[in-house]
Q: What sequence folds into this?
């Protein structure tokens, strides 16, 4: 099934319809998506990382989840398939896909699907309308949502993320100096490095194509990413897509912050759900690099993250805990994400048979 999930598009498969072993599975997916080829002319891919994605879904053996969701990023012009990260955009389509394929029974007018993200082991709960026992993608006039980067409106998919088990600050510090640049390394579902745009000699309001065409900026970002990856416990990230890098600038349209996110070389035309979750949490961290540029809301958990094509609203709440001590006690208090939720939309585009390029 080809689906739009959030601001991405990908092919959704039942795990049982693909080879079980990673090597033959990945080889098949490269042929299905038309990679390696910058145009992906001979496959389903759309010649961009945001449209060269795969979701593999199955019934979960975890009692805390209904289905397992494995995300695979398929390289466009390189023969690479990576499972090193989650994708919060395709996550929006996992619940509806599970109902469509009979993995989960609809639960009345609204259905909740508990999802285990296999890439990291994290959990999410997706809630979406299923009137009459069928997934409603369009939404009624009273119940619809718009998200930046997607034309029109659709039925809302509310995704809530329980607190993760890993540290919000992988380096144990609110601020690090990486490759001579102040950064905040944060992981609230997506390993992300927050950088004040002005520290790299850009405004943070440039068009993605302009930033991508700057070789000096690309070299700086690569240096920061490689060094930050080691600090965050990710090892050598030369050939991976994490951590993401988000440049921060003051908001321009009433939000909390303006962002430009690299994934890792291409500049995102919007921002990923889990990347936005990490940015939002990072902005709330005392002493982080976002403090100088962000305008945090005075009340409530909801925060608007601006990006090149609009905004994403996300809700986050933090608490400060000290290992082995009551919350907020002691100088070693560390921030912990207590709540993260986001509203996305998804749509079924095509359901049928794909014919892969011959091996």
A:
């Amino acid at each position: 099934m080809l689906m739009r999930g959030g601001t991405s598009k990908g092919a959704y498969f039942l795990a049982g319809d693909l080879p079980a072993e990673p090597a033959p599975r990945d080889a098949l997916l490269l042929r299905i998506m038309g990679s390696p080829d910058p145009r992906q002319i001979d496959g389903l891919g759309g010649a961009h990382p945001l449209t060269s994605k795969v979701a593999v879904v199955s019934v979960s053996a975890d009692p805390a989840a209904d289905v397992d969701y494995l995300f695979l990023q398929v390289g466009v012009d390189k023969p690479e398939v990576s499972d090193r990260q989650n994708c919060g955009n395709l996550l929006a389509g996992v619940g509806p896909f599970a109902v469509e394929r009979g993995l989960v029974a609809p639960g009345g007018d609204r259905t909740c699907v508990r999802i285990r993200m296999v890439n990291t082991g994290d959990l999410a709960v997706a809630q979406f309308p299923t009137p009459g026992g069928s997934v409603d993608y369009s939404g009624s006039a009273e119940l619809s949502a718009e998200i930046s980067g997607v034309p029109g409106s659709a039925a809302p998919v509310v995704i809530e993320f329980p607190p993760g088990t890993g540290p919000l600050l992988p380096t144990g510090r609110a601020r690090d100096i990486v490759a001579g640049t102040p950064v905040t390394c944060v992981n609230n579902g997506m390993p992300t490095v927050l950088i004040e745009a002005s520290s790299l000699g850009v405004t943070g309001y440039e068009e993605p194509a302009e930033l991508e065409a700057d070789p000096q900026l690309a070299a700086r970002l690569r240096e920061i990413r490689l060094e930050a990856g080691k600090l965050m416990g990710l090892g050598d990230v030369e050939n991976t897509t994490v951590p993401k890098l988000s440049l921060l600038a003051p908001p321009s349209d009433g939000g909390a912050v303006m962002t430009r996110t690299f994934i890792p070389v291409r500049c995102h035309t919007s921002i990923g759900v889990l990347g936005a979750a990490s940015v939002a949490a990072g902005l709330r961290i005392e002493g982080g690099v976002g403090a100088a540029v962000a305008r945090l809301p005075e009340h409530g958990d909801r925060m608007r993250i601006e990006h090149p094509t609009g905004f994403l609203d996300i809700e986050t709440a933090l608490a400060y805990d000290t290992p082995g001590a009551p919350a907020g006690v002691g100088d070693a208090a560390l921030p912990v994400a207590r709540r993260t939720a986001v509203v996305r939309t998804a749509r079924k585009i095509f359901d049928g048979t794909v014919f892969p390029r011959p091996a």
